[in-house]
Amino acid sequence: MRIMGTEPRRTPERRRDTLQRLDTERDVWASTAHPEHGPHQVPLWFRWDGHAVWMCTGAASVTVRNIRAEPRVRLALPDAFDVVLLQGEAECFPDDRVPPDAAEAFAEKFGWDPRAEEGPFVYVRVVPRTVRAWRGEPELRGRVVMRDGTWVGHPRPGEGDPPAGG
């Protein structure tokens, strides 16, 4: 299906738009899998710190159980037309061991601090290794905007875009 009037964005525009969405969006779909229990997908609040996605969920959740058994995850922003998919490995931080700056930034964004809750929570950090972004069929070609943890076509320091998430 071709969307009328949609001009494909170049890689720098896709990267810019992706970083802007990571900075401003609230929810991400987190997909995990367990060798014995299979796949699991759940929407979670997230915060982008300019390098990694930070999420938080209950310590006894299926998401945490799966990540501990298999840290490879996929994340998706919730828009089926303006697609952003991230792939990487997750790392779990119990709420009493999370880096304070990450927990404080998460609490500031959402007005909720899981460290103040009665039950234990786990912060999940995902540094993307691959990011794909596209809007409809015209952008399927060239949809990889990050490969092996490096933004595709990213300028060298001092040559173009300032770092995002700062």
From TrEMBL:
Entry-linked Pfam families: PNPOx_N
Organism superkingdom: Bacteria
Gene3D superfamilies with a match to the protein in the record: Electron Transport, Fmn-binding Protein, Chain A
Residue ranges, annotated region (Disordered): 1-21
Keyword set, alphabetical order: Oxidoreductase
Annotated GO CC locations: cytosol
Domain Pyridoxamine 5'-phosphate oxidase N-terminal: 24-134
Biased composition range(s): Basic and acidic residues: 7-21
Example GO molecular function: coenzyme F420 binding
PANTHER family per the UniProt record, alphabetical: HEME OXYGENASE HI_0854-RELATED
Full protein name: Pyridoxamine 5'-phosphate oxidase family protein
Organism listed in the record: Streptomyces liliiviolaceus
